[in-house]
Specification:
Layout: H1 2-43, E1 46-49, E2 52-60, E3 69-77, E4 83-89, E5 93-104, E6 107-112, E7 117-119, E8 124-127, E9 133-139, E10 148-155, E11 159-168
This protein binds copper (II) ion.
Copper (II) ion binds near residues 99, 110, 133 and 135.
């Protein structure tokens, strides 16, 4: 009698539990998806300077002892006239150069843009790994994941614009790579 009483009532609650767990998991997945969608506009920096809109400034953590780091961001020119990123400065680096990647005799190399980077009207210029980028030279201290690195951009028309690079992991190929949304 006791044995039956114990096993019978146990089965049903168990079934119930797995159903409830499924529902909870389903709800959590929904909440996570919703949060991921909501998180984008909250996390993404958008800096307006005159006709320019600068988004997602980021960098990568530097492996031990490295003295250089890349800086990446997106610049949109909403105006009718061209502008130009002429120089960049920041306390973290001895100097900051504006670089482009180019193929020379089949070898990918980078070179500084002496006249800066043109931002044509109506265009969006993306500085990203493998393309245009900022080069932080003579780093005074290593960049650590999760840090923010303040920089000052100097535009021909928009003037000085303060941004702060979000430092991602060493191998990051894109900002907010840790969110898992890129995979
Ligand atoms: Cu470079």
């Amino acid at each position: 009698m006791v044995g039956i009483h114990v096993t019978q009532p146990l089965r049903n609650p168990f079934k119930h539990e797995s159903l409830i767990m499924k529902n909870i998991k389903h709800t959590l997945a929904g909440v996570a998806a919703l949060l991921a969608v909501l998180a984008v506009p909250v996390l993404a920096q958008e800096i307006k300077a005159g006709e320019l809109v600068i988004t997602q400034p980021w960098s990568r953590a530097t492996p031990g002892g490295a003295k250089i780091a890349g800086g990446f961001l997106t610049i949109e020119n909403k105006g009718a006239a061209p502008d130009r990123l002429v120089s960049v400065a920041g306390d973290v680096a001895g100097r900051v150069e504006i670089h482009e990647m180019a193929i020379n005799n089949g070898v990918m190399t980078m070179r500084p843009l002496d006249k800066g980077l043109a931002i044509e009207p109506g265009k969006t210029v993306k500085l990203a790994p493998g393309g245009y980028h900022l080069m932080l030279m003579d780093l005074k201290n290593p960049l650590k994941q999760g840090e923010k690195v303040p920089l000052e951009l100097q535009f021909e028309k928009a003037g000085k614009v303060a941004v702060s690079l979000d430092v991602e992991g060493v191998g990051a190929q894109a900002p907010h790579d840790h969110s898992g949304m890129k995979k």
